[in-house]
Amino acid sequence: MTEKPTIVFAGDSLTEGGRWQEWFPDVEAVNLGRGGDTTEGLIERLDEVTALDPDTVVLLIGTNDVANRRAVEQVVRNIETILVMLRQALPDARILVQSVLPRGAEYAEFLREINRHVWQFAATVKAHYLDLWPVMALEDGSLNDAYTDDGLHLNEAGYEAWLTELVPGVERVRDLPPSSRPIRLPELGELS
Question: pLDDT band for position 121 (50/70/90)?
């Protein structure tokens, strides 16, 4: 019997609220979402993710940085740091980073700027980017009212909308070969 592949879902309360094992029954789904978490908080607890040696990491983080009034550059740098640290610790893992979800319209341009930078950076660490805005955002850049009761957290309809993009995104990523390890050249003393 083959072990089920492990997928870690890492992020904040949006991730924490997910029923990942129910929605992804063919894998060992581990929920490492933590309410109120920021990019800095996730950096501090990345060892929880890497200790599980997952086949795939699904990342959604950044919305609480907006609430804490972090600069775009700081949020982008932290997400890039998370991706680099994951790639270094898990060289064979598949990494799927998702766009920071929309909130109120007043945050739209700020979030779009973060997402543009993360989208551009993801490929440099062999991570895959999933843009959730087409399904989650209204024309003004706010989170679709049908998907939230408070303008931030997702209701059942919000999770269903998210899954319409996430399930095929995870399937595509899982169908790809693992990222290959970089070739390590022997040290001079190792040559005989």
Answer: very high
The yes-or-no answer on residue 180 being catalytic is no
pLDDT tier, 1 (very low <50, low <70, confident <90, very high otherwise): low
- The string of pLDDT tens digits covering residues 155-186 is 999 999 999 999 999 999 988 776 644 444 45
Active site residue 150: yes
Output the six-digit token pair for 58: 């699904």
Q: Active-site residue among 117, 131, 153, 179?
A: 153
In the annotation, is 175 catalytic? no
Residue 113 and residue 121 in contact, taking contact as beta carbons nearer than 8 Å:
no
Quote the strand ranges of 48-162, DSSP E. 56-60, 94-98, 128-130
Domains of the chain: residue spans and CATH: 6-175 (3.40.50.1110)
Give pairs for 41-44: CB < 8 Å, separation 24+. Answer: 42/10, 42/11, 42/12, 42/78, 42/82, 43/78, 43/81, 43/82, 43/85
Residue written as token pair 């800095």: 40
- Out of 13, 117, 131, 179, pick the active-site residue: 13
- The one catalytic residue in 117, 128, 145, 150 is 150
For the entire predicted model, the pTM comes to 0.90
Q: Are 87 and 125 in contact (CB under 8 A)?
A: yes
What is the rounded CA–CA span in Å between residue 161 and residue 18?
Answer: 12
